[in-house]
Amino acid sequence: MLSEFDLIKEYFQRPHHATRAALGIGDDCALIAPTPGMQTAISSDMLVEGRHFFAGEDARRLGHKSLAVNLSDLAAMGARPVGFTLALALPAADRAWLHGFAQGLFALADAFNIELIGGDTTKGPLNICITVFGEVAPGRALRRGAARPGDDIWISGTLGDARLALAGYRGELAQPLDDASQRGAAARLHTPVPRVELGVLLAEQGIAHAAIDISDGLIGDLGHILTLSGAGATLDVDALPAGDVLATRDTALRRAYSAAGGDDYELCFTAPASARAAVLAAAASVATPVTRVGIIEAQAGLRLVDAAGAPLDLRLAGFDHFTS
Amino acid sequence: MLSEFDLIKEYFQRPHHATRAALGIGDDCALIAPTPGMQTAISSDMLVEGRHFFAGEDARRLGHKSLAVNLSDLAAMGARPVGFTLALALPAADRAWLHGFAQGLFALADAFNIELIGGDTTKGPLNICITVFGEVAPGRALRRGAARPGDDIWISGTLGDARLALAGYRGELAQPLDDASQRGAAARLHTPVPRVELGVLLAEQGIAHAAIDISDGLIGDLGHILTLSGAGATLDVDALPAGDVLATRDTALRRAYSAAGGDDYELCFTAPASARAAVLAAAASVATPVTRVGIIEAQAGLRLVDAAGAPLDLRLAGFDHFTS
Q1: How far is C-alpha A23 from the geometric centre of its chain's CA atoms?
Q2: Structural domains of chain B in order of their starting residue, each with its CATH number
Q3: Residue of chain B whose Cα is closest to the Cα of A144
């Protein structure tokens, strides 16, 4: 039988890069030597079976997504990723599952040149808790409370395909998706791409004011920026960039899932109108599409409008883990 | 109904000290400004209901223990605690449970002057994942692989009462404990005291070579030091400091539970014989008893002996989450 120590050694302990971590897996703590003068950004996300992913979810995709949602938090802060810890509760030490999970996890980690520096494994209902560490220069972090009236509101990539895929799985759609569309949308649900390069550029070059990553739906997440910034906004719902599959659906569904879908892991950020060219140049330099979708205003509240500027009442809300 | 955001605000968000964390709960990431020149020590532990604690465990004790086992890892590295993140999966947002858990958690956090800087809450089978951060000067960390032949082996505090309490709960004892004894031993199981001050002194003053915290039983944990140091040891099992309650039991039980009990969260550390006075002075200065129990040797393997120096064969092993 695979022991806890063999499990870690076989699947999670890799040759130590020694570039960032002064000491990796295998001691009581990992050690990191922070870059002099930089702040450390830290975020922790827990993924629970049946809540954040379906029971029986493909292990490789799960390895990717578990790290991706954490990297997305660093992206939303404009912090450059350094490393992460992984705490894992598993019902059993299943070799095929561990192999797939580690593959998905490390493929993404390697893409961002970051190391797994420590963690914990235990038996229990499947639960994946990752804590990521990044670095950002003092005063450069993209804080939620930093939006200012007059700022443009921008969205990276596209929204809503992840929610559409979930609706497809759940059989919630009046007009079901064909197989190819379901697969296309599902890729956005299962393997989100954290917008790390864009977030880092927006912070390092001082282009953006506030940012958040869209995990619970744009309206809910933008709401956090507004609350913490003491501001309001007008959002052009028809300007929201719908995912490739969602874009083929009717207006009502497109509006609903792009404005309040969830699981998008795109960035919503604000920047002054004077920075429009800089935003577009930064986004182009990392091949990430961005779309201007609204404006921050002094008047509190979020005003949804359609393409003609007429008010929309979508009755949408962000996702909450204890009331939904 | 208590929402996820209200839950965090009501039970886990406290006035921001601003002493260490540049930015605490409520953004995509927390920000810490590392002390210039210091390394960051990081450790992550996950506690699962039915595995690390009984179903229905008192929430206050659980809040204490969840943080204590993590601080114990910092202690074993000789790192000074700075802050921690908490990721929590809960079956329901139960106010009484949350109140108790937060009380136990913050009482210990306040005792070490550290802050909860971020985390995550979600619905799911009860699971508590804490990641702690500390600081240690480069080259000062107490690494598992740093023991040298000739080093004394030391133990802080006492061993075995936590395992004795567990045996009592499970009805494993031939001679059951009376109520007072069960309560006394159980305090060691439920509310371990991390040996942070001692670990920090041993590291900062350069007194100790290697250290580990005893979570899976001394023999298993000392084994990690020996393996990583490429060394062996002779351990005087009768010299092991038994817990107050265990000390009243027969020799066989005392040997078994002090040598391989688990859940002790004491430090096992090695230091050169020339440092004996310094070890005792450091321990006295933080009112932590320490006991010399063996010696590191060049010959591989762990040799257990009794008070007369005769070999003992205890057939004991450390705890492993996937084979036990």
Answers
A1: 28
A2: 4-136 (3.30.1330.10), 144-305 (3.90.650.10)
A3: B27
Q: Which residue, A11, A83, A13, A1, is CA-closest to A42?
A: A83
Chain B CA closest to residue A141: B31
Q: Establish how many alpha carbons lie within 13 A of residue A160's alpha carbon, considering only the half-sphere containing its beta carbon.
A: 26
pLDDT tens-place string over residues B255-302 = 999 999 999 999 999 999 999 999 999 999 999 999 999 999 999 999
pLDDT at A22: 66
How much is the pTM?
0.90
The side-by-side arrangement of strands in the sheet containing A80-90 is: A115-123, A80-90, A127-136, A39-48, B30-32, B21-23
Q: Choose the mutation target among B44, B136, B319 for the interface with A, i.e. most A CBs under 10 Å.
A: B44
- The reply to whether A119 touches chain B by the CB within 8 Å rule is yes
B33 → closest Cβ in A121, A123, A138: A138
Q: Does A131 touch chain B (CB under 8 A)?
A: yes
| Cβ–Cβ contact A139 with B under 8 A | no
The predicted-structure confidence for B44-89, as pLDDT tens digits, reads as follows: 999 999 888 888 889 999 999 999 999 999 999 999 999 999 999 9
ipTM topping 0.85:
yes
